[in-house]
Amino acid sequence: MKPILTLLSAALLLAVAPLRADLVLKPNDVVAICGDSITEQKQYSVFMEDYCLMCQPVEGLRIIQFGWGGEQASGFQARVNSDILPFKPTVVTTCYGMNDGGYKAMEQATGQFYQQHLQEAIDQLKAGGVKTIILGSPGCVDTVTFHNPDHAPVSPLAGVYNQTLDALRGIARDLAQKDGLGFADVHTPMMDAMAKAKAAYGGSYAFSGGDGVHPGPNGHLVMAYAFLKALGCDGAIGTITVDLGAGNAEGTPGQKIVSCKNGTIEVESTRYPFCFQGSPDKPEQTTASVLNFFPFNADLNRYLLVVKGLKGSKAKVTWGSETKEFSVADLAKGINLAAEFLVNPFCDQFHKVDAAVQTQQAQETTLVKMFLHYLPTFKTMAPNSTAELDKAAADGMAQEKNLFTAAAAMVVPVHHTIKIEPEP
Predict the structure, then answer these.
(1) Residue 13: pLDDT band with limits 50, 70, 90
(2) According to the model, what pLDDT value does residue 317 have?
(3) CA dist., res. 393 & res. 178, Å (int)
(4) Quick one: what percent of the chain has pLDDT higher than 90?
(5) Which domain does 290 fall in, by range?
(6) Which residue, 360, 388, 404, sits at the end of a domain?
(7) Nearest to residue 97, comparing CAs of 179, 142, 39?
(8) Collapsing DSSP states into helix, strand and coil, what is residue 257?
(9) Strand locations in 335-381, DSSP E?
(10) Element (H, E) at 222
(11) Same structural domain, 205 and 151
């Protein structure tokens, strides 16, 4: 274990920039991501952890997933003490409302019940020592693929249920404002990105496939965007500034310049740009397919190359296996490599870390839903085994932490080369 921890510590020292005052996340925070079956899909929560490990890391930060299928705010409130607080989170994000709306037109009693139990959950979290709470709104249902879940009493048109979800969004927003909490508006950017994507690709483009409720990776990326913005992430991943006239280059924290010679810059990076799957030109449920319809790269994924001292009007930039042409004026202002080169030298390691995070979060779901939640019941059923049950719970939580440590240790320096060639 010692070599892994040593590697992790070294990576963090290289990667962590000075913290901004508006960044919610602080060193050694424990972040609990809570929600219903959409959270339990372990997709937007994985994207959030990916981002906080690789893109804008905070020293000692740990993220844990607490999704529970079919849950409403009332169910969450009932399990705060048994499931969430034993992990001693300092930051909690919530995403409830999809099931709370009852899959029908909005009713006053629905809103009152939702608000009451959100408030009770907030009070419990505060009493349990949680310093920061981000209330997330529900997302949206797909305007084409949405259909009535088996348990719903009414099957409204998608437009009707999205109005209900928007009303619940307003309740969560107002409650966050009243209690001085953070707020993540998930509904609005999802609705906007879905409308733009369907306009471009056609109405059959699935934002939430199957039942129209559970998003694909495309929808989950928009959800992660909303929460990361609410947590104060600003998207400044790194900037590499090259002066071809002077023959030198410099990088921001996490971007170490190894060499700069004849327009070829070798870089060692411990802060990664966020990497995507799929193509922005194909109407598939991939993260890349939705990039043109909301400002993820502009707001959260700026990995900039600034080139000074170029002559002529154009230049070629080669990064990894791809080469693209840019104007000298654009290079002088700075191009976003993360947006321009979706296939880049970070992709392989990024997706390895992503897979490790998925393994970690899958273990968390099992641990919480199948053991910790029922631990008080197990103790009642086997009162002579209380000590053994407590030890099993502690062992499970230790294993969860080991899986997180293993995922974090995979964020190793990436060596890559950028080549700049002036065009005649």
Answers:
(1) very low
(2) 98
(3) 37
(4) 88
(5) 236-343+412-422
(6) 360
(7) 39
(8) strand
(9) 335-336
(10) helix 217-230
(11) yes
